[in-house]
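ENTRY TYPE: protein
WANTED: fold as tokens:
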Amino acid sequence: MNAPFLWDYTFNKDDPTTESIPVIPTEAWNQAIKKCYEAYCSPAARRKAAQLKCPKLSNLLIRIKDFLTGVEANRAMKAGDIGRLLRVWKMWSIMTQSLPGLTHYSAYLPRLVLLITRILPPSLAKLIRHTLLLSPSGRPSHFVAKDFHLETNTIGSSSFSITQESALRSKDSKTYSHQTSR
């Protein structure tokens, strides 16, 4: 009984709402973001919180910083900026050492970072850096990791071939069973 009432109330075309959506100027947004960054995300805010008797705020700010590395990695990857992505990977190389269950990341990520930044010759390291990300559609800001792209294509092609094989097997089995019954 409530659904029709809700539908009538929310999607009534005869009585459109006259409320205006508030507009906040860009400068006000920028000031709010700057104020929030200085209060919670800046190194000075973390130092100030670390000096307090209660460690709760300090721990929260560290967790926020760690969470934001994931956001930064996602944005860097989509933008195709391997330099920013490497900076995040360097942080993650240390962070993953203490996390249980991330055995592959804790072993292979530091190895990859060291290979790209220290061990390989500069020309080979540059080649690897510039082939880690690709844009399948060719559009800017739509980059993905090459291994992700290859996995999606492999899963798609393998599921398609499995579907074809099962269809062929079912046809063959029908033909075989049809021939044996005669």
Remarks:
- Residues 82-120 form one domain.
